[in-house]
Design a protein that fits this description.
The complex is a heterodimer of chains A (about 110) and B (about 120). By secondary structure, chain A is mainly β. Helices cover about 0% and strands about 55% of the residues of chain A. Chain A is globular. Chain B is mainly beta. In chain B, strand 4 and strand 5 form a beta hairpin. The chains are: A mainly beta (about 110), B mainly beta (about 120). The interface of A and B includes residues 35, 44, 50, 97 and 100 of A.
């Protein structure tokens, strides 16, 4: 069974601060995805990374896939209250089309 | 609106009862996935259908079953409900069975409360 561990579980910061959240596994994944989920809604895909060492930027969000394709990080620069939500990482296995999700990092950005 | 429609949004029922959750995937998507989300377990994969056929099974209880119809909508049937089945149930869809690399589109979920 492939497991993804996310840390920290909860993060509360002030607007304008920078932060990094992590997603780690002992398994190799063919791809790694990050989603954001807001209360009462389903997760929304932010990015997919497929190559070891790959870095992708989405405005103030920077995503990195580890060289060995076992871990990933999400860095947010100058966080805003609109960034508040549950950030989920999900790993894909090339043999199947199903995703394994981590339990998430709950981010609260206060004005 | 993500394009994936789930009904009902909320459901309250008693232990021992049976309920049916419905999902209409995004237009053109052939794969439908069902996930259960609880505070302690996170998002747990239940089952996947691709173009009407079961493709993969996860941690789905024997009391639960699902199917995908010719028009590609899917239903998740939960029977002999227990208090521990209270959770958010999400449906997601993807195109051409390539969700692992191309991402899922999730619906807004059904919140099931068993009392």
């Amino acid at each position: 069974t492939q497991l993804l561990e996310q840390s920290p579980q909860f993060l509360s910061i002030q607007e304008g601060e920078n932060l990094t959240v992590y997603c780690n596994s002992s398994s190799v994944f063919s791809s790694l995805q990050w989603y954001r989920q807001e209360p009462g809604e389903g997760p929304v895909l932010l990015v997919t990374v497929v190559t070891g060492g790959e870095v992708k930027k989405l405005k103030r969000l920077t995503f990195q896939f580890g060289d060995a394709r076992k871990d990933s990080s999400l860095h947010i620069t100058a966080a805003q209250p609109g960034d508040t939500g549950l950030y989920l990482c999900a790993g894909g296995d090339s043999g199947y089309s199903t995703l394994t999700f981590g339990k998430g990092t709950m981010l609260l950005v206060s004005p | 609106d993500s394009g994936v429609t789930q009904t009902p949004k909320h459901l309250i029922t008693a232990t021992g009862q049976r309920v049916t959750l419905r999902c209409s995937p995004r237009s053109g998507d052939l794969s439908v996935y069902w996930y259960q989300q609880s505070l302690d377990q996170g998002l747990q994969f239940l089952i996947q259908y691709y173009n009407g056929e079961e493709r993969a099974k996860g941690n789905i209880l024997e009391r639960f079953s699902a199917q995908q119809f010719p028009d590609l909508h899917s239903e998740l049937n939960l029977s002999s409900l227990e208090l521990g089945d209270s959770a958010l149930y999400f449906c997601a869809s993807s195109g051409q069975g390539q969700g692992a690399n191309y991402g899922y589109t999730f619906g807004s979920g059904t919140r099931l409360t068993v009392v």
